[in-house]
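From the pipeline queue, job 12 of 40. The input is one protein chain; the requested action is below.

Action: predict structure.
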Amino acid sequence: MQSSKYARRIASAVATTLACGALMAGTANATPVPRPGQAHAGVAAPHSSVAATVPAGIPGLDVSGWQENVDWDAVKANGAKFAFIKATESTDYRSGEFDQQWNGSYRVGLLHAAYHYATPDSASGTAQADFFVDNGGGQTGDGRTLPGVLDIEDNVYGPDKCYGFTSDQMVSWIHDFIDEYHARTGWWATINTFTEWWNDCTGGSTEFAAHDALWINNHGDSPGTLPAGWKTYFVWQWADTGVFPGDQDVMNPEALKRLLRTRH
């Protein structure tokens, strides 16, 4: 479990982050996913109208193995304040770029969090949470690490976007992952998804909104309607290219403050 001392450390680390403004950025096309291990946050995100500028909030990015050796000094110089970094997928893939991306984002002073790309049909939620924690997702205590992320969205490896699960089965799988992650780290994981998938594949479950921050994927000028139960988002992935490598995100300052109060 994380101490109040650690909560003060991470709160101090984000003090200047909460005051930052917006940056200009562009838009682009989705990256194809040719083989297992190459899925990434927002790979199946819906695209709406094109956004001309970064939305209001704290600017940041998310990266995976696609971005390889990221120039973190340039990322910081361009105004990023946080990064979400793919660590794992299923129970047999750890990103070969994770260490460079994780250590590099820390070195330049960004807030950062690891994420796990879920494939519910390949292993249980408990097993995938354990693999995530053991392979980068369990790192804590450095003063700039945010709770890890369960990235759960369309099945890009098969025809059934819900992985062949009923809504009840999917909710149970998510509970298993979230509860095991909490048992191992003392944190409730952030959930990364998009509204259509959540409604279709969990039946619009509201069971996670009370303690799990939402990272919403919707590329365009609005995050759109949020999944049932969530009143606001923590992070919004709004484009898949721009001034930063990888996907472009903004963080909600008020949601960050709430997360810091409730996670420790």
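Job complete. DSSP finds seven helices and nine strands in the chain.
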